[in-house]
Amino acid sequence: MTMVRRVLSLTSGRIAVVILTLIALLAVLGPLLAPQNPLATSDNTLAAASGSHWLGTDYLGRDTFSRLLDGSRVSVLGSLEVAVMALVVGAIPGILSVYLGRTFEWLTLRLADTLVALPFLLFAVAVIALLGNGITQAMLVTGALVSPLFYRVARAATLAVARSPYVEAALVAGASTGWIVRRHVWVKVLPPIAVALAQTIGVGFIIVSSLTFLGIGVQPPAPTWGGLLASDLGYLSYQPWAPLAPAVLIMITVWASNLLADAIRDVSGEAGRAFVNTRKARANRLGKPDPVSTGGA
Amino acid sequence: MTTLSAKAAPGTALCAAEPATEPATGSVGELSTAGTTAAPVLAVRGVRISDQVTDREIVHGVSFELTPGKTVGIVGESGSGKTLTCRATLGILPPHFEVSAGSIEIAGTDIATLTPQQWTALRGATISAVFQDPASYLNPSIRVGAQIAEVIRVKKGLKRREARHRAVELLQAVQLRDPELVYGQYTHELSGGMLQRVLIAVAIAADPQILIADEATTALDVTVQAEILDLLAELREQAGLALVVVSHDLAVVAQLCDEVLVMREGEVVEQGPTSDVLHRPRHEYTRLLIAEHDQYGLEKFLTPLTPQETS
Amino acid sequence: MTTTAEQAPPARRRRVVGTRVRHRLGRLLVTLARSVAIFVPVFLVATFVTFALRSMSGLSPARIQLGEEATPEAIARVEAQWGLDRPFLVQYWDWFTGVLHGQLGTSWTNGADISTLIGLGLGVSLSVATFALIIGVVLGFTLGTLAALKRTTWIDRAITGFVTLISVMPAFVVGIVLVAVFAVGLHLFPSAGYIPAEQGVGPWLAHITLPALALSFDVVADVARQLRGSLVAAFRENYVTGAVVRGLSPRRIFLGHVLRNGIGPALATLGLKFPALVGASVVTEWIFGLQGFGRFANDSAQAGDVPAVQGVLVVSIVLVVLFNLIVNLVLARVTPASQRGV
Lengths: 297, 311, 342
Fold this sequence. Notes:
The complex is a heterotrimer of chains A (about 300), B (about 300) and C (about 350).
Chain A (H helix, E strand, L loop, with lengths): L1 H7 L2 H23 L30 H36 L2 H16 L2 H12 L3 H12 L1 H15 L2 H8 L4 H37 L11 H9 L10 H24 L1 H18 L11
Helix pairs in contact in A: 1-11, 2-3, 2-11, 3-4, 3-6, 3-7, 3-9, 4-7, 5-6, 6-9, 7-9, 9-10, 9-11, 10-11
Chain B lengths: L41 E10 L4 E11 L4 E6 L5 H9 L6 E10 L2 E2 L5 H7 L4 E5 L12 H13 L3 H14 L5 H5 L8 H12 L6 E5 L7 H18 L2 E6 L2 H7 L2 E6 L2 E7 H6 L4 H19 L9
Parallel strand pairs in B: 3-8, 3-9, 6-7, 7-8
Antiparallel strand pairs in B: 1-2, 1-4, 4-5, 9-10
Helix pairs in contact in B: 3-4, 3-6, 4-6
Chain C lengths: L9 H48 L3 H6 L5 H10 L6 H13 L13 H36 L4 H14 L3 H15 L15 H35 L2 H8 L4 H38 L5 H11 L2 H29 L8
Membrane topology (chain B): Peripheral membrane protein
Subcellular location (chain B): Cell membrane
Protein name (chain B): ABC transporter ATP-binding protein
């Protein structure tokens, strides 16, 4: 797809994609790569990093590196679940709100207002604890809570398309709503949704880590990145460096997601295309790559 | 085509630097014909402006002089460099643009020598400007009166109370019907014509000697346009303002100006007293402008049945 | 400021001032009405969902009080005591009217009044949240302003980089790092606990500084980024050129014109940020051992104490609504342009 190629033409886009691919590989292969059983305890507790324990051991003598690798799957899958759930629950009503009449529009708008106003970590904690302690329920609830982002983005893009002359022309020509959505709306709605998706993966990651940090969503012995941090907290005076690895992994993942979101935003839409073109033109003229763009947000 | 060759060296600033600072409220210039007797408040000499990024010259030499109570008009289509010339005079060229040759003197001071502080002191008090789309040149979240009062307080050192009083007077002077009411309103509460009057009031608040009106009447209704032009003329008579009127509309220039510059693609193609240029145009482009204008005016009377075509 | 002095005839002056005051009052009322119009449905929907949680959860006070081996009769008796055998809507109505009167019911676990319990924790949480907001606003505004003033220089790039860094740090990561460095490593601050302000402002500040700092990072990042963006945009506006041409100094232009218009989106961000702040308090209070609102939420949720959780959610919604109301009022005051529906 052209958008993917354009994202990859940006340095920041390439960096983001490479990092996220690595993290995804970690999620798939991590548990297999773990050199030791992440659940096996030993007498060698709170050990420093060494040849046999690359990142040392925790308070039960479990190998931290193995736990980190093993825990990556839950963390990554969790954030993907959040993003996909939010996409489904948010984007579809967002697009439909333009077409299904005023009642539906009013209802979904109010619902989106409500969800946005909720302190969602608090809600996630409450709902998950009450509805049963499973990572999938947890992520689905979280996904629903962050879905207004998709609702708004999809709705705004659809509105812009729906009011454009060519859609009106199609309507006049007797095209069905379904056909218009597939043919015209989808194309315009996709880029902003891709941006939102990348952002939500980052947000989802923070939420998953926060929840697992609190011990919500997973059964205790199973390792997660958040859970690793939580167990490190009690032993900071013995191992002040222990939180470093999971913390850095979480931050890099979130950063890469944001970077990807920015890259997609930069290359999508008319402005984006012009942006890439001027960059190329300037690079050509100067005969050397462009300096880092100074854009903030 | 008078002074295209006058590519002044920086030193020439000294020659003209004598008594020009006095605004001469009674306007001595009223009697003089070509603006040669009084010292000019604004002297633009062979100004060239170029875009440093593309290294292209946009304005290829503009020269004119302006004495108190006089008006110079610059006519040309959009992109002819007239606005850039104005901006150069005000020292607000867009980034990457630069005066590459020539000099501009305001009240005897070469602007190339000005420090940022001196610029700040000069603007508003000596030279000021009004623009097209007046709403955007006023702060949308501050009452318009307060914006006038701000200029008076800062530039003339008046107290809050006096500044407010003076601002209301100014609003009255630009013929706004209910100055007290307008004082407390925001830009979005005022019409285009009213906004342009407010903008003029702001511009003259610190009693400048030069006022640049860059397409100041372009977006307005024809009747409002005429009123604004009358107002400018009146201010010129009363306060001895020197005006630079920039427009793409020959009629505006004809109504107000003593001298006209016709610009096209950065080049001054014709320059001279208004009546000469209008009645005996030498350059083909000027003729074209005048012809178009005649036709335009005639059409209104000749074919009243098809008003659509004039739009 | 504008209503103080004038030389106009007194009668006329009174008229103008009168209309202006009425104007301002009217705007205030419109803002209030609009906020209420948005938040009444929010409140209704949110409380309904909150209340529906119980029936969805299948939890019951009987389990907590009687344990797993209770007979069905005993369970039914306890549930009848709590009024849980009545129709759902009747229960909701009872609960909702109670909420409107400030009564959030009694806890399933210890029968204590939930309003009182939450009230106890709220002091801690609000101290931390307020301090976090102050840090966030001060630091965020400083960084955003500095970056906008020095845009495209290395200062701008350094600030942008720093802001990007802290924006990807979740509150609990920041919290752990702060504990590791300042409490465990340098012994500058206590690592946990809380002392009310009445027992000494110094210790109080010492105890809330680290949690507030942990919470504030997100606010700092968002405010700084938003402010930089809107200030840079405001600098490109024509009214800045206008002010330059009028001979106003750069300082005055920035303070009086650019900041005034650029501040709106940053304030709006603050309104959006508040729910996240309340939410993140669950995590930070856990790290710093604060017996606050978030800790109470977490504990009651894990204990399956449904009325307590409902109470927590209601209070959090009220907090968010109140905060947004304040932000909206400030916004209306700062930028009348927003009243045009911009």
